[in-house]
Amino acid sequence: MTPMTLAEVEATARAAHAGQTDKAGRPYEEHLRAVAEGVRAPGGDAEQIAAAWLHDAVEDDRLSRQWLEEAPLTRRTKDIVLAVTKAPAEPPEAYAARILATPGALLVKEADLAHNADPARLAVLDEATRTRLAEKYARMRTLLGLVSGDEPE
User: Fold this and answer.
1) Tens of pLDDT along 108-148?
2) Who contacts 137 (Cβ-Cβ below 8 Å, separation ≥6)?
3) Could you tell me if 82 and 97 are in contact, meaning their C-beta atoms sit under 8 angstroms apart?
4) Distances (CA, A) of 44 to 78, 99, 105, 149
5) Whole-angstrom Cα distance, residue 59 to residue 62?
6) How far is CA 45 from CA 51, 77, 99, 103, 144, in A?
7) Is residue 89 left, alpha or beta, with left meaning phi > 0 and alpha meaning psi from -120 to 50?
8) pLDDT tier at 70 (50, 70, 90 boundaries)?
9) How does pLDDT run across 72-85, given as a tens digit for each residue?
10) Which of the 8 DSSP states describes residue 1?
11) How far is Cα 145 from Cα 152, in angstroms, rounded to an integer?
12) Nearest to 17 by CA among 31, 6, 36
């Protein structure tokens, strides 16, 4: 099996999320592109970048787990996508532990959190939603052991 190219993965992800918007009403592909770039910029490899493009596809029911298992992707890419796919009602601690236990997944989740918590994205939301999401993202960063430059170490 020859794995899909990054261009093929990107096209698949864009098609899977076509018509979907984020909480701010923006095309969802903007989030996917930002997460993929957030993985690429600090040196993420092709398998991690592919997983970044697909990171929400199974969770959002845009692609099935069966599709993922049968797709011409490396096992590592599939494992990263599954690691960052949060199950309904899954405790955050269990979700974080799976990410930390999966090689390559932390960088993808870190890029996802960074874009989700972008103040410009959050600013267009109502205050209650903005506060709820900011707290959720901060808690996940803590569970993952991620500290930003402006937080005390």
Assistant:
1) 999 999 999 999 999 999 999 999 999 999 999 999 999 75
2) 113, 116, 117
3) no
4) 15, 16, 10, 20
5) 8
6) 10, 10, 17, 12, 20
7) left
8) very high
9) 999 999 999 999 99
10) -
11) 12
12) 31
Q: What is the DSSP letter of 3?
A: P
Residue with the two structure tokens 């996917």: 32
For residue 94, what is the DSSP state? H
Cβ proximity of 47 and 104 under 8 Å = yes
51: its two tokens: 């997983």
Q: What is the distance between the alpha carbons of residues 136 and 77, in angstroms, rounded to a whole number?
A: 26
DSSP label at residue 146: -
**CB distance 41 to 50 below 8 Å:** no
Determine contact, residues 84/55, Cβ cutoff 8 Å: yes
For the entire predicted model, the pTM comes to 0.94
Strand partners, 21: 27
CA dihedral 73, 83, 20, 31 (to 10 degrees): -90
